[in-house]
Amino acid sequence: MVVKIGLLGLGTVGTGTAQILLDPSGRNPLLKDITIHRVGVRSPDKPRSVQFPPEVITSDLKAIVNDPDIDIVVELLGGLEPARSLILQAIAQKKHVVTANKAVIARYGDEIYNSANQAGVYVLLEAAVGGGIPIIKPLKQSLGANRITQIIGIINGTTNYILSEMTTAGADFSDVLAEAQRLGYAEADPTADVDGLDAADKIAILASLGFGGRVQREDVYCEGIRQVSAADIAYADKLGFVIKLLAIAKGSGGQESQTLELRVHPTLVPKDHPLASINGVYNAILVAGDPLGQVMFYGPGAGSGPTASAVVSDIMNIVAILKSSGQTPTLDPLLSCVHQHFCQITPIEGIKSRFYARFLTGDLPGVIGHLGMSFGNHQVSLESVVQIGFQGELAEIVVVTHNVGEGNFRAALAEIRTLEAIKSIPSILRVL
Amino acid sequence: MVVKIGLLGLGTVGTGTAQILLDPSGRNPLLKDITIHRVGVRSPDKPRSVQFPPEVITSDLKAIVNDPDIDIVVELLGGLEPARSLILQAIAQKKHVVTANKAVIARYGDEIYNSANQAGVYVLLEAAVGGGIPIIKPLKQSLGANRITQIIGIINGTTNYILSEMTTAGADFSDVLAEAQRLGYAEADPTADVDGLDAADKIAILASLGFGGRVQREDVYCEGIRQVSAADIAYADKLGFVIKLLAIAKGSGGQESQTLELRVHPTLVPKDHPLASINGVYNAILVAGDPLGQVMFYGPGAGSGPTASAVVSDIMNIVAILKSSGQTPTLDPLLSCVHQHFCQITPIEGIKSRFYARFLTGDLPGVIGHLGMSFGNHQVSLESVVQIGFQGELAEIVVVTHNVGEGNFRAALAEIRTLEAIKSIPSILRVL
């Protein structure tokens, strides 16, 4: 039995996927039973590094999802439309779908999985999070025996590259971003990466799998890294931390009946934490559960080869099921989406965390007392208050709090802003 | 449909497994469809931390593998016999098998998988390597799109704990071993761990999965850590390395037609290598492949909870297949053993690596020249020769070679042993 693939998109990941499928020797023998039946692209005449006969290539993407010969549609277009509509149409035609599209799954997963369950087809997305790192399937399968308590990831390579470079070179955000754009590690419009939106898409997907409920993408609290300065990185270093953009999902009671914390923000990570040493474009995802303890998955979070590796693993998974299932199989409950309800998400005001805040102040002798009073007025207990440097006439003071309610911390800051000695609050970051 | 488990063994891992299965809330909903039908133990009357009705417990292990009501036999006895015979009998009775027994699989995998394929049942062993770290299933499934080039693991927690403690405390092997035994991190008879036998069992299994061929356990070259001294750890540190017991499988061309290197030995690992920072009883496995690059899996390599998590994930996997497959399914080629041939293994003499050797010498002015000559005579090119300290009257010289053939290196050492100035060669280690 040969399984026929319809490939939508022949960009970086599409090309990598085609290269694996066209050159199966030395890989899992199952790959020899897969053929690329049609390839849909926007510009069929564009020169490409992988060659197909002219009759395989088409710009009519709808013809691919409707082609009765195709068993699996592999959507590697990216973006919301036409990707979403094509995925839904492929499902309606009872084709299995493999996608790397985190944006579509994070926003339309509910609609897509309901349709897929009704049609009795799989929608697999190993490539949507963590590039070549196997994380989706382990969360669905190997870790399912656990009550998952936390998923914490460095899941955006661009921002991790920028923060790593800022740390190594002591450079400021805008300079490193320009360099990253020159090297192709950041897009011309870097918004999705640097503002944390891409990481938010991905943690929405991971949380849904780990905590067994659907997640609304807009429930993910999200701060990017534009506000992180070279000064903060240097002060964090003195305090024993590195700054990373973390995506965090936390729950208390495992699957079903619980509320989740879901957030993406730059975070001070203790230097001896396993995530602290993940540098450059690499990704890592730490999963904690009971009785497992902690496991961490580390690897290349993007790029043609790694992402294609994940895409092809999903294709192989479906091919293996097609070859081994007998007549009238139903969907494998470990590979399909079995949960229907939406997770309750704790609003950011209700979350407790440690904070780092940097203040520019005049009138040094009095100001630490005033800061301490204002924090105390709002039950914000402090771990350290350090006068860490000067900027011209002004003193720089860095405060690290204990675990405190976000609401209390914000109320204290509002009071502190009214103090005459406080000239500005250049940065507020969270501490792991 | 409720799936019935026959559990063989109620030691640490058996108890952990029972605890998960008896308390499914908050875990994957599939666990609610699993019941522990019978439990086989050596001493039915022994008090236990998990309770079963008396009719569930038996000391007649054969009755469990022959019980027609049981769907899955979970073998957690450890040791070679009766584990091997019970696994084979369960297979003959067409029961699926889940095991944590690396010793049996590494030695009798060929026999067991042939029987399982003939009977049409699964033998899953996620818990046999890396405790709670998902590594077996990712190697079978998610990474299969790649041509795997290397698998390098820290896969024995006891030796990693001992080496970590020796590094932190500057203590010698025997003192740390005694402490590890006191803490329960090492067995009363530590042979299987400290002589590398356990790690060799595990790398034989990983190599077989990653490189797609069967592996003879006796083909794994194996050195333990008894010869590693506090002095070597200190010198390695000065040279920029930490010493780890690594299990290494290397191939060149992916699956099928290739020869493999397979070895377990203490190794100098550069401090900036991802495996260098894996300390204590933690395990980590690095897998490199094309086009993936490198991924690393990190977590608790042993213990009741983590190992039970892996056992239960295998049980869930089989339950999911039983629930979703239609009539007359065949074995899923990504979960069963599809390869029949044995891998060709390069004998250790044919392997190239970098070496670290420590010499105790007299007559310092002449000896470095003599050492250099002897190595040169056998085409062993040197990276560094450092006189690193004194022991009484004798000088200590540490040599690090470039990548050289094991045979050449040993021939050079044989010549060096005849030099009058060389009093002894206390350690020879490999360098990653």
TrEMBL record, chains A, B:
Keyword Amino-acid biosynthesis (UniProt): yes
Residues bound to NADPH: K102
GO terms (BP aspect): methionine biosynthetic process; threonine biosynthetic process
Superkingdom: Bacteria
Residue ranges of domain Aspartate/homoserine dehydrogenase NAD-binding in the record: 9-126
Catalytic activity: L-homoserine + NADP(+) = L-aspartate 4-semialdehyde + NADPH + H(+)
Binding residue positions for NADP(+): L8, G9, L10, G11, T12, V13, G14, T15
Gene3D superfamilies noted in UniProt: 3.30.70.260, Dihydrodipicolinate Reductase, domain 2 (3.30.360.10), NAD(P)-binding Rossmann-like Domain (3.40.50.720)
GO molecular function: homoserine dehydrogenase activity; NADP binding
Domain Homoserine dehydrogenase catalytic: 134-316
UniProt-annotated binding residues for L-homoserine: E187
Listed InterPro entries: ACT-like_dom_sf (IPR045865), Asp/hSer_DH_NAD-bd (IPR005106), HDH (IPR016204), HDH_cat (IPR001342), HDH_CS (IPR019811), NAD(P)-bd_dom_sf (IPR036291)
Keywords: Amino-acid biosynthesis, Methionine biosynthesis, NADP, Oxidoreductase, Sodium, Threonine biosynthesis
Pathway involvement of the protein, from the record: Amino-acid biosynthesis; L-threonine biosynthesis; L-threonine from L-aspartate: step 3/5; Amino-acid biosynthesis; L-methionine biosynthesis via de novo pathway; L-homoserine from L-aspartate: step 3/3
EC numbers on record: 1.1.1.3
Short name of any one Pfam family annotated for the protein: Homoserine_dh
Active-site residues annotated for this sequence: K202 (proton donor)
Presence of the UniProt keyword Oxidoreductase in the record: yes
Protein family per UniProt: Belongs to the homoserine dehydrogenase family.
Protein name: Homoserine dehydrogenase
Protein's organism: Rippkaea orientalis (strain PCC 8801 / RF-1) (Cyanothece sp. (strain PCC 8801))
Lineage of origin: Bacteria, Bacillati, Cyanobacteriota, Cyanophyceae, Oscillatoriophycideae
